[in-house]
Amino acid sequence: MMRLSWLLAIPVLLGCGTHAVFDDTDAPALVAAKTMDLNSDGTVETIQVLFSEPIADETVDAADFHLDLIGAVTFEVRTNGDRIHDDVIHLSFPDGFLRADAEPLLDYTPGSLEDVSGNALGPVVDFPVQAGPLLP
Ligand SMILES: [Ca+2]
Ligand SMILES: [Ca+2]
Ligand SMILES: [Ca+2]
């Protein structure tokens, strides 16, 4: 009987080990953002946004973001070879308007964006976007 109870305990212990992943109650946060000129024509058309933790891509709604100097942005998962459900997203806008040295401000109005544990991103006002290096 002793041996059987030990066997039963193993899955319980394993369950505890993975439990921390589902205990994430911290909201994600913006850490950094920079402009990118992906086609090297001298004006930028994308901003790369870094979060404090992985973001659930299906919760990203570009309509909740607003970029100073430009206005509306769009979101596509694979922009610039980006990976799904990591801590980086790319937001795009029409090329030819924003100089490579411009440093616009990014706003986020709370909407659907969540980390992979379902915690929502709070409001972001005037987050500084740095002018990224020109690609070769
Ligand atoms: Ca979190
Ligand atoms: Ca460009
Ligand atoms: Ca990504």
Can you tell me about this structure?
With 136 residues, the chain is α+β, with helices and mostly antiparallel strands. It has one domain: Immunoglobulin-like (Sandwich). 15% of the residues lie in helices and 26% in strands. The chain has 1 helix and 9 strands; from the N terminus they run H-E-E-E-E-E-E-E-E-E. The strands form 3 sheets. A 4-stranded antiparallel beta sheet has the order 1-3-6-5, with no helix packed on it. It is globular. The mean pLDDT is 88.
Which characteristics define this entry?
alpha+beta; Immunoglobulin-like; four-stranded antiparallel beta sheet; 9 strands; 26% strand; binds calcium ion
Please state the second-level CATH architecture: Sandwich
For the biggest β-sheet, the strand order reads: 1-3-6-5
CA-based gyration radius: 20 Å
Which descriptor suits the 3D outline? Answer: globular
The H-and-E topology, N to C, reads as HEEEEEEEEE
User: Please, how many helices?
Assistant: 1
Biggest beta sheet summary:
4 strands, antiparallel
Structural class, judged by helices and strands?
Answer: alpha+beta
Please name the CATH topology: Immunoglobulin-like
Termini distance? 69 Å
Catalogue the unreliable spans: none
